[in-house]
Structures are given as C-alpha cells and as structure tokens.
Amino acid sequence: MIGGKVVDPSALAAHVGGSFAMAAWLAVAKELNIVLYVPALAMAEVRAVYPDVDAALSRLLAHLR
C-alpha cells in the first residue's frame, strides 16, 4: 500500500483497551487523511484474546471510513 499505515494487532488491542494514545493517533490519522489498513488476521487475533470487543472494533472500522 502506498501512502498508508497498517494497524497491527497490538494497536487494535490498545484501542479496545481504551488507550488515549491510540485514540489520539487515530484522530491525527483521520485529520491528515492517512489511509489505514486493518488486516483481517489482526482483527481475528484481537477477537481471540478479547472476545467481547466487537462493538469497539465496529466503532474503529466506522471511524476509518
């Protein structure tokens, strides 16, 4: 991908854990129109560790659009 960033499982875990740093990073990325790619495997990994995160991941995906 040219001009974008890949969101890895640790970043997703930080987001669902309520990290203010991750929230700020996402806000900056959205403001600067940085394309973010969230691999399906990263989402599956976070869901395996945190089974009750579907709502948080849905909010993240809605934020990225």
Entry keywords:
65 residues; mainly alpha; 9% strand; two-stranded parallel ribbon; 63% helix; 4 helices
Main beta sheet: strand number and arrangement? 2 strands, parallel
Average pLDDT: 84
Going across the biggest sheet, name each strand in turn. 1-2
Q: What proportion of the residues is helical, as a percent range?
A: 55-70%
Low-confidence stretches: none
Strand content: 5-15%
- DSSP, total strands: 2
Distance between the termini: 17 Å
| Structure annotation, total helices | 4
Order of helices and strands, N to C? EHHEHH
Task: Determine the structural class based on helices, strands and strand pairing.
Answer: mainly alpha
Walk me through this protein's architecture.
Helix content is 63%, strand content 9%. With 65 residues, it is mainly alpha-helical. It has one domain. A two-stranded parallel sheet has the order 1-2. Helix 1 packs across helix 3. It is globular. The model has no long low-confidence stretch (mean pLDDT 84).
